[in-house]
Amino acid sequence: MKTVFFIIDKPLHGNVRAQEFLDIALMAAAFDQKVVLLFEGEGVLGLMKNQQAESMGLKSVTPILNALPIYDINEIWVEKESMERWAVDEADLVIPVQKLSKVDVKKQINVADHVFSF
Amino acid sequence: MKISIQINASPYQHQAADTAWHFIQAAIASGHEVYRVFFYHDGVYNALRDARPPSDERDIVKRWSALHDENGVDLVVCVSSAQRRGLLEASVAKKVDGYPHALADGFRIAGLGLLMEAIIDSDRHVTFGD
């Protein structure tokens, strides 16, 4: 089993990219690989409640985020410094996450087998 | 070393396809095995048969086809990315009255499972294009 690490550092809505990117994560989980999702930078904004993707004619990514535990994706991390920078509180988020400092994130990336960036 | 490649950007507007191609040439020349190139997101446009750049410019699509012919590299285009962008496999095109000859020689259309297989089997998976 490999650890496949996904870094999401851009907003999730506005184009089809997030859907296609998360498809890789779901597929990795379906292949019994260990999947880690890290949200940092503007990516943390995509985790906030009340996203209205439909108003732009787009599909909301929130249902995919809610479905992650069904795929056994339970390592959902958010960089602490990014949350502070964007004044995002854990209570604002659609799914439970673990907060990690920048230093710890770096350590985890170093031990991952593959890293995908958004 | 066994290497797989992923290309996420369209040709000509981004450097990804060029950089990847040069990387692959260098890898093969150094004795590495390039196992598969997986075209994802707008990268699927690398597989358009009817791309016709001016004759004094590099032909990115033909270059991929040649890589398949000469080095046996598996060129896989993601089916869902491709369908979304109007690139259909012949059998699907026939069913939906679409254009059946869109895919250039040497490419095949398949699912993300082949990307995962490449990631799992390779020592390195290198992505080009954001």
Number of strands of chain B: 5
Mean pLDDT of chain B: 97
Total beta strands of chain A: 5
Category by helix and strand content of chain A: alpha/beta
Q: What is the CATH fold-level name of chain B? A: Hypothetical Protein Ychn, Chain: A
Assign the CATH topology of chain A. Hypothetical Protein Ychn, Chain: A
- Chain oligomer state: heterodimer
Structure description:
The complex is a heterodimer of chains A (118) and B (130). Chain A is α/β, with parallel strands linked by helices. Chain A has one domain (3-117): Hypothetical Protein Ychn, Chain: A (3-Layer(aba) Sandwich). Chain A is built from 4 helices and 5 strands. Chain A has helices at residues 17-30, 62-67, 80-85, 102-111, and strands at 3-8, 34-39, 75-79, 98-100, 114-117. In chain A, strands 4-3-2-1-5 form a 5-stranded parallel β-sheet. In chain A, strand 1, helix 1 (17-30) and strand 2 (34-39) form a beta-alpha-beta unit. Chain B is α/β, with parallel strands linked by helices and 130 residues long. Chain B has a single domain, classed as 3-Layer(aba) Sandwich (Hypothetical Protein Ychn, Chain: A). Chain B contains 5 helices and 5 strands. Chain B has a 5-stranded parallel β-sheet, with helices on both faces. The longest helix of chain B is centred in the first third of the chain and has 14 residues, at 16-29. The mean pLDDT of chain B is 97. The interface between A and B is medium-sized, with 15 and 15 residues.
